[in-house]
Design a protein that fits this description.
heterodimer; A: 313 residues; mainly alpha; two-stranded antiparallel sheet; 2 strands; B: 283 residues; ABC transporter involved in vitamin B12 uptake, BtuC
Chain lengths: 313, 283
């Protein structure tokens, strides 16, 4: 297949650009780029569910937020080191993912979407209501940057740390979706009953996909807590889940590259438009509507359709 | 007596929720659209009612204006934006999410960020003495309106030609179309009506709850919970869910103010675990 080389070349170019970025832009944009990488990872984790397994979740922020809160609670209230807090946050997000999956996988389609939404709101209302533990909607400020023996306090070191984590996670995700397991997920997305007839244990595949997606979302959430040095119930809110869905759809569900682009674009737009006009919400809303009208299969879908038309049947 | 007051409060709020959730549930049942703009219809409808009430002093005119404007807005959104993604859930969700932002910003622009309240109509001012307490007549009015609305909707669905078409469309839109029912018109009508119901709920809520930026989202989430608990596409479910959520919300706020929303979300999650399709939902 010809595009394969083009894809690799594009990845190499993007990687080089990402590596030299802190040398060419102001520190503010280094922070923004870090946020883009984190949300790219978050959107890719959701796409494992939505794009590859065909399960639309509206509760993905639950895992993002539980990991962020685990970091904040363990470091601020427990006083443990990053060596403990970071892996524990991933474990907590993964276990939460397993629990939600057991309940949510009882349903499909819109009901699945609603159950994930409902369970995520339960998690949110705990963070919101349990003031003595979490400070409620005031959030928890003062989360220190991770310390693995070298300082990640500055914008640039933390950016490189995030980039390294992102790269490893992206490679893992790419390996997952191109493995036999990944192809089985696509099969389940296209026809659950057919895969069942072929002897696949559909439930088990969906469960593992859900738990993996939760783990990667937790990774993004942990990084986000470190980036902001702050966690709040907003990290768990359905708006966060909806935004992740938008990022995936805008970029193009069913590819890993698309959601990453969609996430970077939305993070950038939110920052850029809110610095240009008070009415950034309206501009963003209009962008969502227009992009959906003119690129319903996402930006990646738009590009591939264009390429296919150019190269003929 | 305090219990009775909380029960009445819960029912009154439940009736407002029913106005919201009935439209949302019908829209989902017929078109399979999860309308994220529904809370915006509620809030902007309320704001429009507020403005009309301030200008004319007429509560009835406020209700009519809000329902008309939001109904037309709903029809436009359905016809020109959602229609082209027939039964394609993801783009439709994305579009309604976009409109949620647009309405939120527009209403902040026009009506500002301070919480606003609607004065109740003079006829319904005052309260009924209940033991040591007084209970506002307006809330009795809300309960009455809600029950009348539920009865009217039920009658419409079971005993009119259009209602029969609606039920046919909910069961199978393609077969209904093949049988010569104008499904396309039905879609627009139901979306517009659902939007108008939400706007009516918004105006009626004015003297009880206040309007503020973010109220659209709070209303959307509660409507979502009602529809989840009751089951998608079922009017009976929307009514049962609305009453349940209204009561849970009121008792939660009164007795566990720390965990106000928890008292709504936990029972919802439990119901879903036992019945993944809600109380009255079909698979």
């Amino acid at each position: 297949m010809k595009p394969r080389i083009e894809v690799l070349a594009a990845c190499a170019v993007v990687l080089v650009l990402l590596l030299v970025l802190p040398d060419v832009v102001r520190p503010y944009y280094v922070g923004l780029a870090t946020k883009m990488l984190i949300f790219a990872l978050f959107a890719m984790s959701l796409d494992l569910l939505l794009g590859y397994t065909g399960l639309a979740s509206l509760g993905h922020a639950a895992f993002f937020g539980t990991a962020a809160y685990t970091i904040a609670l363990l470091t601020l209230r427990g006083g443990v080191t990053s060596w403990v807090a970071f892996p524990t946050s991933l474990a907590v997000a993964t276990v939460t993912g397993g629990l939600v999956a057991v309940l949510a996988l009882r349903a499909r389609g819109s009901y699945f979407l609603m159950i994930t939404f409902a369970l995520a709101q339960v998690v949110w209302s705990v963070a919101f209501g349990w003031r003595s533990l979490t400070n409620g909607d005031d959030g928890m400020p003062g989360v220190p940057r991770p310390d693995f023996g070298w300082s990640l306090d500055g914008a640039t070191p933390f950016y490189y740390f995030t980039l390294a984590v992102f790269a490893v996670a992206a490679l893992l995700l790419a390996a997952i979706v191109s493995s036999p397991f990944g192809y089985a997920l696509r099969g389940i997305r296209d026809s659950e009953t057919r895969m069942q007839a072929l002897g696949y244990d559909v439930w088990r595949y969906q469960f593992v996909a859900f738990v993996l997606a939760a783990a990667f979302a937790g990774l993004a959430g942990a990084l986000y807590a470190y980036l902001n040095r702050f966690v709040s119930p907003d990290d768990l809110h359905v708006i966060q889940s909806a935004e992740a869905l938008i990022m995936v759809i805008l970029g193009g569900a069913g590819t890993l590259f698309g959601p990453a682009i969609g996430a970077a674009l939305i993070v950038f737009l939110e920052d850029y438009v809110s610095s240009m006009t008070e009415h950034w919400l309206m501009v963003l809303g209009a962008i969502y509507v227009l992009v959906t009208l003119f690129a319903p299969r996402g930006l990646v879908g738009l590009v591939t359709t264009h390429l296919r038309e150019r190269s003929g049947p | 007596m305090i219990w009775l007051i909380h029960v009445l409060n819960g029912i009154a709020i439940g009736m407002l929720l029913f106005l919201l959730a009935a439209g949302m549930s019908l829209i989902y049942g017929l078109m399979k659209i999860l309308n994220l703009t529904h809370g915006s219809f509620y809030l902007v409808g309320g704001y429009i009612g507020l403005t009309v009430m301030q200008r004319t002093g007429s509560f009835v005119l406020a209700l009519l204006a809000a329902a008309a404007v939001i109904g037309v807005a709903g029809a436009v959104i359905e016809r020109f934006f959602l229609r082209r993604f027939h039964f394609d859930e993801l783009p439709q969700t994305l579009i309604t999410f976009g409109f949620l932002f647009i309405f939120a910003d527009a209403s902040l622009w026009i009506w500002g960020g301070d919480p606003l309240m609607l004065r109740q109509p003079r006829m319904l001012a005052g309260s009924l003495p209940l033991g040591d307490y007084g209970y506002p007549y307006y809330r009795f009015f809300l309960i009455g309106v809600g029950l009348a609305f539920a009865a009217a909707l039920w009658w419409f669905q079971e005993h009119t030609r259009l209602g029969t078409m609606l039920r046919a469309g909910v069961d199978d839109a393609e077969i209904a179309r093949a049988l010569g029912i104008n499904v396309s018109l039905l879609f627009t009508l139901v979306f517009a009506a659902g939007a108008a119901f939400a706007a009516l709920g918004g105006v009626l809520a004015g003297p009880v709850l206040s309007y503020y930026p973010g109220a659209d989202f709070d209303a959307l989430i509660l409507a979502f919970v009602v529809v989840i608990v009751g089951g998608l596409g079922s009017l009976r479910g929307a009514l049962a869910g609305a009453l349940l959520v209204g009561l849970l919300d009121d008792f939660g706020k009164a007795f566990f103010p720390q965990f106000a929303l928890f008292t709504v979300f936990v029972p919802m999650a439990l119901i879903l675990v036992v019945r993944p399709t809600g109380l009255f939902g079909r698979r």
